[in-house]
Specification:
Length: about 475
């Protein structure tokens, strides 16, 4: 390499790997990492808090950003508290166990404001205060626990390490109800001396995941084994011991997944004991949920979120309401008493079956559900001449497609309620709506996932009069 080039590179990389630097943490990224600046350089440091002064070791340097690790906390931030989980700094689940919940809520509201202003080009004043979660621990009603072998061939179960598919052995998680942790410990006791029962890409048999669901209002538990094959040695022993010990297990399912994929559930599910679903109460309605169907993981906070969405939908009883990405029908059905007609759209067939049954069982007669891709189904409804007054969307993280936004705009609903689990994609989409005759009126962040960096939001848009 020429000396001139070396000089240029050296100038650019004033900081070297393993160098110790002092940083003041002044903000957090949307993933919860601390941000500190030295001159032109911005460093990202996980597990820090706004207000910390730290000594950090440089791990990696790019042009004018670097990544570092805390070596010493010189002056702790007043937001700090003792992290109360032994694996919190390596586990990919929680990122905020070392700061107060109040500081976490501040960070999440800021995350929404940053996305709404930078990506959505909207006014920060549109973002209300965040609605905090009543339960900070034990709120998860769903857990998917990977099962694997470590380098020594020992069975490991737990959670994925941050940014990786490496399983950190950890049987109890504070975000889970204790019944999950007890069951996981028992499954581990069963598997511990049976490493041959663990799935590997070579054998394509054996257990890959333990998947649990909990219905808070009934106490019912769904226990699901995801395995590479329809049967595994000792299955009777495992099933019987769990059924005997946990009368709350009302549904036991074996899901077969022998594909080389990161998707957890395979296409075939077999009910090995009890029902093929569990039932929970939400917003005064009873919902049956299949293993494949989406169901909000923080039930009590889901009720708060849906109530806010209902307020934003502002229904009077005469409206046609479309609920896009409806899952098992929860949001739409919670609003069906206030509209004339409800149409739900969802791509997972099992979820649509649940939605139809949930409507019937709750005596909701003004609802119909369509299984299909939301952009296509919406376009089809538009062509059929359906003119909804209100559309609710609740897409997965990737948000809406420009085509779907176009179709929604062409259906001219008076109000659009956008429920989102990703402020960045929501903001991108809101920006498109504002270019097409819709006005963003307000956004409420709702904390569904305490201790993680994720934040839900609900947004109210109205159609501008007189144009289009
Ligand atoms: N509104 C529901 C579900 C929201 S999660 C609730 O609150 O429970 C997002 C849902 O979108 C999931 O059920 C997922 O299966 C569904 N989905 C994902 N891609 C889709 C698509 N292209 N068309 C329709 N539904 C889709």
């Amino acid at each position: 390499m020429s000396p001139v080039l070396i000089m240029i590179i050296e100038r650019m990389n004033m900081y070297r790997k393993n160098e110790l630097i002092e940083l003041n943490i002044t903000s957090l990224t949307s993933d919860g990492d601390g941000v500190g600046r030295v001159g032109e350089m911005v460093f990202f440091v996980p597990n820090t808090a706004v207000g910390d002064t730290i000594r950090a070791k440089v791990l990696k340097v790019k042009k004018n950003v670097g990544f570092a690790r805390v070596e010493e906390i010189v002056t702790p931030s007043s937001d700090r508290m003792e992290a109360d989980c032994p694996v919190s700094f390596s586990c990919g689940g929680c990122v905020y166990r070392h700061i107060s919940y109040e500081a976490e809520c501040r960070a999440k509201r800021q995350k929404v404001i940053d996305a709404v202003t930078r990506i959505g080009k909207l006014d920060a004043a549109l973002v209300h205060d965040i609605i905090p979660s009543k339960n900070i621990d034990g709120y998860r009603n769903k857990a998917m626990i990977p099962v694997g072998l470590d380098r020594d061939g020992e069975v490991v179960m737990g959670y994925y390490a941050r940014h990786s598919h490496h399983i950190m052995h950890c049987l109890r998680c504070q975000l889970s109800p204790s019944v999950f942790n007890d069951i996981i410990e028992d499954v581990y006791a069963f598997l511990r001396h049976r490493p041959s029962l663990v799935y590997s890409p070579q054998n394509r048999r054996g257990i890959r995941h333990i998947y649990l669901r909990y219905a808070e209002t009934t106490g019912d538990v769904m226990f699901c084994v995801v395995a590479g094959s329809r049967h595994f040695d000792g299955e009777e022993v495992l099933y019987h011991s769990l059924i005997e010990k946990y009368p709350s297990i009302k549904s036991m399912i074996l899901n077969v997944n022998a594909e080389d994929t990161n998707v957890i559930l395979g296409k075939r599910s077999y009910t090995v004991y009890g029902d093929d679903h569990i039932a929970d109460m939400l917003c005064g309605l009873r919902f049956e949920i299949a293993p494949e169907a989406f169901y909000q993981i923080n039930r009590s906070q889901a009720q708060t979120l849906y109530a806010k969405a209902k307020e934003y939908a502002d229904l009077s009883g005469t409206e046609t309401l479309i609920d896009l990405y409806c899952g098992a029908g929860t949001i739409g059905l919670s609003m069906a008493d206030k509209c004339k007609e409800l149409i739900g759209v969802e791509i997972i067939p099992e979820a649509i079956e649940n939605a139809k049954r949930n409507a019937l069982q709750n005596g909701v007669l003004n609802a119909r559900f369509i299984c299909g891709d939301a952009p296509q189904a919406a376009e089809q409804l538009r062509k059929e001449g359906i003119r909804p007054d209100v559309i609710v969307v609740d897409p997965p993280r990737k948000g809406l497609t420009p085509e779907l936004i176009d179709t929604i705009v062409r259906m001219t609903p008076d109000r659009v309620v956008y429920v989102s689990c990703d402020p960045a994609t929501m903001s991108r989409d809101l920006n498109l709506f504002t270019e097409q005759n819709y006005s963003v009126k307000e956004i409420t962040p709702v904390d569904m996932f305490p201790r993680t960096s994720h934040c839900e939001s609900v947004c109210r848009m109205t159609r501008c009069q007189g144009q289009l």
